[in-house]
Amino acid sequence: MGSNVRYKPDVGLGDYPVRSWRGWRHHMTRVMMAMRFQLEERQLLRPTYPLLSGRDMRALLTQFLPRRDTPLEEVLRQMEVRHRKRQAAINSADRQQELNE
C-alpha cells in the first residue's frame, strides 16, 4: 500500500465515546473490522478504481445504505473528481522527486 492510504480517520479510530476498558475494546474491534473491510474492498476494486480511498467507500456506503440523499451518479462523479486530483498530486510528487534526484 502506498503512503497515501489513511484508514484511521475514515473508520472513526479516535471517535470512541466510551471510558470503560470493555467499551474501548469493542470500539477497537469494530474499527479493525472496518479497516479490514476497507482493505479487502480496495484490493477487490483496484483494477477499476486504483485510487479508491476510505472516504470514497464511506460516500458509497452512504449511498447504498438506507439513507439516500445524493444520487449514485453524483457520488460517483465526486469520487472521480477526487481521483483525478489525487492522481495529479501523485504525479506532481513523482515529478518533484525526479527533479530532486
Outline of this structure?
The chain is built from four helices and no strands. The chain is an all-alpha fold and 101 residues long. The chain has one domain.
Q: Which structural traits does this protein have?
A:
single chain; 101 residues; mainly alpha; 4 helices; 0% strand; extended
Molecular shape: extended
Secondary-structure-based class equals mainly alpha
Uncertain residue ranges: 1-5
- The first-to-last residue Cα distance is 23 Å
Largest sheet: none
Number of domains: 1
Give the helix proportion (percent range).
55-70%
Average pLDDT confidence is 80
Number of β-strand runs: 0
* Total of helices: 4
Describe the structure.
This protein has 101 residues and is mainly alpha-helical. It has one domain (8-100). Helix content is 68%, strand content 0%. It is built from 4 helices and no strands. The chain has helices at 8-11, 21-45, 54-64, 72-100. Helix 3 (54-64) packs antiparallel against helix 4. The radius of gyration is 17 Å and the shape is extended. The protein starts with 7 loop residues before the first helix and ends with a helix. The model is unreliable at 1-5 (pLDDT under 50).
